[in-house]
Every structure is written in structure tokens, then in C-alpha cells.
Please model this.
Amino acid sequence: MPPVQMRVCSVDKCPELVSKGMCAKHKRLYRAKIDKRVGRIRGSRWTTIRKTVFTSQAGRCFCPGCVYCGKQCFEQAEEVDHIVPLKDGGHPTDRSNLRGLCHNCHLEKTRIEQRSVWLNGGSSNGKVQSEGIEPESSEDIG
Model:
């Protein structure tokens, strides 16, 4: 395998050498800026929320069936999904906006949302992701 060519960080005036894109410092700053803008949380608080979501669903994928993957899903939930995406105003910790999905259902839901955003010119309008969903409660668990 040929050696990786190093280049300068893509952020202006940063001399750090990287294999591609931004250096670790600028990636961290960029990620924090995006997280703050959309209201995303990380760390131990998110870990607690994930456990609560998975426990309330007995660890099973909460795909409503047919809407995203075309079949009823009985897989293990691996990822927490924001029913209404954060960028569309969905609350990051409200239990009624969270559900566990298996990796494949979450991937398919995200693909459908991204296509919807592209077709609608910038917003998924919460339409695709709310079909067939019965919110458990509207309490904030974070």
C-alpha cells in the first residue's frame, strides 16, 4: 500500500499536517459548533438517555414496519433515532422524539429523510419520520 500523502489542515492558516481534511483540533471545534447549533448532546448524559430508550423498548428495533425497510423488523435496537430531526426542530432529549432502531432501519430512515430534504428544498418537514409513530410520553429524560 502506498504511503499516505500528508497535506496542510483545510482551515486557513493552520500548519498542522493531516492525511485529509481538518486536523483533530479543528474537527473537534467544528463538531462542537454543529452540536451547539442543532442542540445535540454527547457524553454520559447521552449514554444515560440511550439506556433509557433501549430499556423502554426491551432492546428491540422500534421500526413501524413497511415505512422504512419494507418489512416488520425484529432486530436488536443499536441506535437512538430522533423521530423529528434536530435540524428540523426536534427536541434532543424529549422521550416522545426518541426511539431505538436497528442499524439497517436507521440507515434507511436517514436515506429517505435526506432524499425528502433534497426534493423539498431544505427541510424534511417532519413528514417521513413521524409516520406510524405512537409517542410514549412527552417527558424530557435528559
User: Anything to note?
Assistant: The first strand starts at residue 7 and ends at 8.
